[in-house]
Amino acid sequence: MLYTIPDYYQNFKCTADQCEDTCCAGWQIAIDRKSLVRYGKVTGKFRRRLNRSIRWLEGTFKQGKDGRCDFLNEENLCDLYSALGKESLCRTCRLYPRHIEEFEGVREITLSISCPEVARILLKKEEPARFLEYEKEGEEAYEDFDLLAYSKLAEGREVMLDILRMRELGLELRAGLVLALAHDMQVRLKKGEVFSCDQVFERYQKEKAREFIRLKLMESGDNIEERYAFSRQMFQNLYQLELLREDWESHLRESEYLLYGSADDSQDGRDAYGKMHQDFAAWLTVNMPEWEIQCEQLLVYFIYTYFCGAVYDGRAYAKIQMAAVSVMLIYEMLAARWRKNEKQLDFEDVVEIVYRYSREVEHSDRNLEAMEQMMEEQLIPWFSKERCKERIEGKEGKIWM
Ligand code: SF4
């Protein structure tokens, strides 16, 4: 079995009681069957505590005030761990913040940025993220696994990550290339023309593709009206998701108000939004130039984690859109926080917004599914259906088909 891990994997160490937002509160922790059976066999003094703090039929830990796990003590340490040792933890607690995607013969392990410490490690990382591989015994057979589609997706992902790591190009250009590549790949996968994906990979590594995307970005880059409408729509999407933390909704409402003003779509509101974005972008360039690298790391993170999952649901392009929209929403929330802080922002603000966004969106299968569905229906403006149609019909040059 081939295992992959990010190159910052070994840097992670749980900060336990020092953590500003423990993962042992705020969400329901499901106990796997094996651990539940193990807990059932515990005897002695701790037996009564287990009986009191586990919902045996549901297979979950009970929660106290603020959704804190019943085993989390006042020092923010786990009583189960202290009484029965590390091995006693259930699968969820043992693994978190590791995230595993399984494919035939491959297990991809990443670290979830829903953990503040992981977010901090990723956002501090200056060199481009790389993924390491190692072999370990054991293999699982998958019925109906499309190995060919998976290997093309993995190849496409490599090309996309290489593009994202080309720091001599502007980040918008890199993101644009990746979106366009994924779009063209999706068209071919849908038609069952898996082998022709190779031409797509080749095309997007050429200067001609860069010229075209530059042109597209220039055409639509300054359209603040479009950006306002799209990002506002994306905020509305977030309200439709399952709410994991109660205070998330008020955070969204506050950010929305700071960004777009009152509910009506007035011209004044749009002008103010445009002005704020201009000022915020200028502020970032001077005061937080590392944001461009952080953006790259986030895009790499989302794409690496989810893209190959398209082998199961065919949604290659939606996954790339979700990566881009997630980074855009994080940026919007940062702009709102900057405004709230009277035009100040620091590294810990970025960490907080990143890990909270990830907790809400990534830690619910329902939310991931809903986000991807929305991403299939709502295209990023410069990549809207009309514009794609023009390209596909060859009206804007040959490089696309
Ligand atoms: S969120 Fe991360 S750092 Fe905090 S307690 Fe959980 S694993 Fe540890």
Radius of gyration (CA) equals 23 Å
Helix- and strand-based class? alpha+beta
Order of helices and strands: EHHEEHHEEHEHHHHHHHHHHHHH
Residue windows where pLDDT falls under 50 for at least 5 positions: 384-401
Instruction: Give the strand line-up of the largest sheet.
Output: 4-5-1-6
Task: State mean pLDDT (0 to 100 scale).
Answer: 91
How many strands? 6
Q: N- to C-terminal separation?
A: 37 Å
The number of helical runs is: 18
What is the makeup of the main sheet?
4 strands, mixed
Please state roughly what percent of the residues sit in beta strands, choosing from under 5%, 5-15%, 15-25%, 25-35%, 35-45% or over 45%.
5-15%
Give the bound compounds. iron/sulfur cluster
- Shape estimate: globular
In helices, the fraction of residues equals 55-70%
- Counted up, domains total 2
